[in-house]
Design a protein that fits this description.
The chain is of the alpha+beta class. The protein contains 16 helices and 11 strands. The chain is globular.
Length: about 400
Amino acid sequence: MTPQCPGARASGAETEVLDFPLPQPGTMGPPEKCAQLRRSCPMARVRMPMDATAWYATRYEDVRELFADPRLIRPSISDWPSRPGQGTAEDGPRLVTIAELDGPRHAALRRALAQPFSSRSVRSHLPRIRRLAEHLLEAFQERGSPGDLVAGFTEPFPLLVMCDLVGIPFEDRDRFLPLLDAALGGMVTAEEGHRLTVLLGEYMAGLIARKRKRPGEDVLTRLIRAGDDGALTPDDVMAFGLSMLTVGFGISSFCLADSVHTLLHGPDQWAQLRDHRELMPGAVEECLRFMPVMNGTVILLATEDFDVHGQTVRTGDAVIPVPASANRDERVFADADRLDLRRTANGHLAFGRGTHNCLGAHLARAEVTVGLEALLDRFPRLHPAEGQEPLWDDESVTKSPLSLPVSW
């Protein structure tokens, strides 16, 4: 018998609410529950870790439409969830990134960033990105086999690329990385959100002040000048900086680690990609589809009532489109739970959709591509280290290995 869809009301009954789906311990996911929900309940009501509930969308068609739905807006971690008696967002500092901006301010900031994050601009940086990869891998190799590829490469590489392009000092990482681990590790409480907001805001304000005194050849300096010319507001520049700190490199790092882990544990997939480099562009797209880095942490708020699959989303309700589930939807992708390096026509939703689609999509593709190419060239016989297993944070919805022991 098909179970009652969580969230549906049966004659006078309370709304059924599921526990928030998490991947199986020791895996990257997506949660096994997603496949069942796609079949029987594509809009389910789930219980969040921070004493709130949300609509959890698992089918490709719904996730695709919800990402671009103008009736849904992105709250900051300092705005949601609201609690009685805690005051309004205006009572304290707010962590606003590009994702939370809308209207003319959002459009102006996207225009200012269109050129430095364009496909052409990213291509011009490829030699520099490759040199950064080689620098890290040389040091990793010198430390000897076996080694932890997460600590030695997949974690620092996208961070180093982002710092180099944007103008955030890599040497400051011990100051901001602990804050980012908290922000990216899952959905934070109101108290944690307030603390992160204050500390990240203080760091970024100080960096902008330093850049104003000592400009560089980087994106942040470029935006500061645009602000001085009146094209952007100081808050817009701050929003960009906070965007880069919170999501500017983490997803690429997670995807790269998941990709290497999956390729090394697949049937000759590492060797297939090593020996057939013409597969690389499609293989990167397939990795972006297959790796369920974000298992449901994009939270949107409804600004009006609307219906999806017979469920009424009310004004103020939280909605979570789950790209990790959408990208495994068997209605759209043949053999969806298999990594197919030769897959074509790959319309994955890894970068979202609509006006808030990922600004750094071209850069993320370049980081995964260069990262894999550099690893394949330097370590053609890379393999999992014998007797050592990857470590996972099984409490996090953002899943990639905390360590990846490899030998060569």
